[in-house]
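re: ur question from the group chat, yeah i did fold both. here u go
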Amino acid sequence: MSLLPALGCAQIASEVGGELLGACLEITARAACASLCDEDGDDDTDDPPPDDAEEPRARTEPPPPEWRPAVADCEVKSEATGVFVDCAGGTRAAFLPGTEVGAADAALEHAPTRRGPLEIRAPGDVGRLAGTRAVDGNLIISSTTVVGLTAPELQSIGGDLVVTRAAALERLALPALASVGGTVIISDNPRLSQREAEQIVFRLTRHGFAGVVEVAGNAAP
């Protein structure tokens, strides 16, 4: 057996045969297989991870957006031509001359979402819309002295939008309004253009609104 380390299988085959030759071939085949497996790469799935391996990092959620209160900072001017309300963020309104200002919103700062119903009757009510992005409930505009109302920050009304019997209303601008959860009623406003009322509904339908609509009795285009 001392011939195995020094001689190859071909040499051994010339000198010996039988079982010794078969054993030599089996040993050579095993050695070749082991060599090929090492070269192709070891399957180390069962190997324990090295001590210095990094552990997977936990997924971090982005921080919540900073909550900023809406500021009902409104300036009210009473002039011979009317009563004018100008609020931070672009919310503004105009009323007929001599209109009582009414009680202003006591809270100068409020959440961007207001609980409804929110009704605009007097200049003091306009501050409740300043900075408001959503009304959780109905928004009602039924003042007989309001001439114009602009609320550029309002995006959503959870309940109904009701603009009715506003005898002096000529302008109503809600450019960011994209969602109304209930019914849209813009009716019996003799100075508000029917076309302007319909444009509010058209914008809502482009955002998926499919609720009940009543737009009638407004000024002819």
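okk and heres the other one u asked abt
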Amino acid sequence: MNPKKILSILGAGIMALGFACVASAQISPQVAKLKPKDFPTQSIEYTVVYPAGGALDITARLLAKHVEKATGDKILVNNRTGGAGMVGHTYLATGAKPDGYTVGVLVNLVWGDAMLRANGRWAYTDLEPIAYINSDPLTWVASTEGPYKGMSAKQIIQIARDKPGTVRVAIVPGSMWEYLVEQVEGATGAKFLRVPFQGGGPGVTALLGGSVDVAQGFYSEFRGYVDANKIVPIALASEQRTTYLKDTPTFNEIYGSKQFVWNIIRFAVVPKGTPADRKAYLAAGLQAALKDPELLAEYQKLGMYFDPALVKSTNIGADLNALALKEREFYVKTGRLK
């Protein structure tokens, strides 16, 4: 037999074995009831718009593993990065086929991209939310070494006020990373040197390398470095302290305010026009995975929390769109939108 034909047969056999192994998972009966006759016949892609290793990437990979367990389907996580999320968001809204084989695992930063950077080419309503995953407050972290060693957020911010442009802070342009810095500057008179990155993870890496003085990110992105005493969390952009960072004050505590609230909301979407039966099946698989105690425990270890209102939502699309409109109010108020 031709060697190329032998390799082709072996490759097909290995692929079939891979699907068979996934199919042998403990499939949820509730999910099985919704499975369309002709779907899926190939792997489903979970698209992540930020780099590998970040909080969203970690979230998606853990989720994919448990969705495979609940459905027997093969899930591939693909990082479509660039433009601080814009490349992936645009692909999902305008390039991905609405056939159920592409699911976006996103955060609410997509709303800002749609309203401020898409220039009318697409809207966040071109993506249909099918499941809420979890949430996370944006956190400022500093190094345990260097010129700001042992300083609080308030002390570092004061230096940025006394010596404008000398404190380097990592941002993701056109996102809550930048908006939080803007709010801090507006409230305190400080002036930071903003250093742009594609996501929170790269900013934390830059902090470790001494390229910035303050990074912003989410617990899963820096937890290991806190445990290793490399960095320390110094302030939370949340309404209250979290159980896993109970010794870290919020910006609102520090400045007696209510304005510093920037939470990441992670959720899954499909392109608008995805067939209803496939959308329902994909949503059921996600919901089954998100009820798995093992997955919930893994997320909690990473410091992620679950917004009760969104967990109990009976119309996640409408509830998330309501939050998007609330964010729009901020853009109008700050002159970003007319």
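fwiw on the second one: Strands lie at 44-48, 75-79, 102-107, 127-137, 139-143, 168-171, 193-196, 214-217, 231-236, 263-271. The chain has two domains: 28-135+263-333, 139-255. idk if thats what u expected
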